Model the fold of this input.
Amino acid sequence: MDFDLSAEELTFEKEVVAFLEANHSDEVMDPNPEHLSQTVETPPKRAFMGKLADQGWLGMSWPKEYGGQEKSGIYDFLLTEALARYGTPQPGKGVGIVGKTIIRNGNDELKAYFLPRIIRGEIEFAIGYSEPQAGSDAASMQLKAEKDDARGGWVLSGHKIWTTSAHFADWYWVGARTGEHKHKGITLFLIPMDHEGFEIHPTYTIGDERTNEVFFNDVFVPDSHVVGEVGKGWTYICEALDLERFAMLPVGPVEMKVKGLIEYVREATLDGEPLAQDPVVRQTIAKLRTDLEVARKLQRKVISEALKSRVPTIEAAMYKMWQSQLGQRVADAALDLMGPDGQLKPGQDEAPVNGRYERSYRYTVVDTIGGGTSEVQKNIIAARGLGLPKSF
Ligand SMILES: Cc1cc2nc3c(=O)[nH]c(=O)nc-3n(C[C@H](O)[C@H](O)[C@H](O)COP(=O)(O)OP(=O)(O)OC[C@H]3O[C@@H](n4cnc5c(N)ncnc54)[C@H](O)[C@@H]3O)c2cc1C
Done:
């Protein structure tokens, strides 16, 4: 695995850190980032995206004709990791999933409207794949898109669930069924989120985050807002996920949690004795620190493969499973080490580390589900990596 950063890449990393220090803001940054935050809900967070754009850091790997710099994907990775360590929102969805798919497959109208707005950090997207009967097996989506030749477009009706950001995003990136074939019957559409015919209902998660159910009541979409070719949506969805996984899963948040727990163990006492004197505590911490090193190495393997223009499907599955489950192990260990007080919520006087690990214990559940569950990652490793039979 070849992964030494060049002098230019190291300089860029330092520039980003200096920028984040200079632009420190409690309204934008979470000092205890739980996971990759793609939430750009508030005006200060939107303004922060604009500042990243002013630095020329959005769409660095895009072609020059669309405002990019044709830089290696390593720059996107370095930016994502630095932003994750400071708990800021991430540009991943717009620049990565939507932008790169439009560049590869979009018509001229979509390119002209969306690409400049994405690269200026002005536009937010919600991603709509999951439905009541389509989660891990997203290709089972049933949201119906029927051709309306008289009006030159499509009429969408049905129901999406788990659409994070639907309550504040500008545009909806939606997969819908345009044909009967499971995979070749899916088409991607772009729809303004304030379009008539949408009903948005909140869903609150164990991690206090809002996601949404979205009902489509005969939502009309013109032909010009079909992404790429009709019936190729599934191919585009898979391509985007395979190519973007490494930029979407920084190791920074887990690193911060392990670091925070080591600091706690150094300072804390139990029955008047330093906690760190307990050999079981030391072994627990040593094991977590080692597991973190494994996560870093797995992540580097993903990036190293992606930079060789290989699609790192198996490596990304290994990393995603390990990294998200490690987040849970860290929170679990923290609550064990802290005793009953560990269960106190942020803001309560006696809560150790201001309830950070109580919050983490709840938030990390989501990490093992979103972006493909741990079981799905294991299936990918078994079937595609080891050639064992597929389970579905
Ligand atoms: C907080 C949150 C935010 C989300 N945001 C979005 C979003 O913005 N847009 C979007 O489209 N989706 C989003 N999702 C949906 C997410 O992608 C799905 O929840 C996920 O893919 C799992 O699907 P499911 O919930 O239907 O579970 P299911 O697929 O029904 O799985 C249920 C259980 O069965 C297991 N399982 C399923 N299939 C197999 C198999 N073949 N072999 C072994 N075990 C299996 C799973 O691992 C899981 O434990 C979000 C989810 C959450 C929780």
Q: What stands out?
A: The chain has a mean pLDDT of 93.
